[in-house]
Design brief:
about 100 residues, mainly alpha, about 80% helix
Amino acid sequence: MEARRGGDPQTSYVARIFAKGNDAILKKIGEEATETVMACKDADPARIVAEVADLWFHSMLALSAFGLAPADVLAELERREGLSGLEEFASRKAQLRDKEGL
């Protein structure tokens, strides 16, 4: 992906979307998330896989745009392992309150 990022926008989708800027990448994530939801509502396994692949791909573009990598997400998931989802959510909420000075 990184190798294609600086490529020719005329021949590379990755180069083209990066040339359009972060808003284009973020818009695609929203579109792909919606398409994933619709595929799940239709209970179409092949479409679910295809749409999740598109969602993950565009999410990886966003990570790259912000100087992050899939390994950063994997590290966060590892950090959360063994935590209850409710505890993890409460922890993030508390961190947000602290950050906002509430």
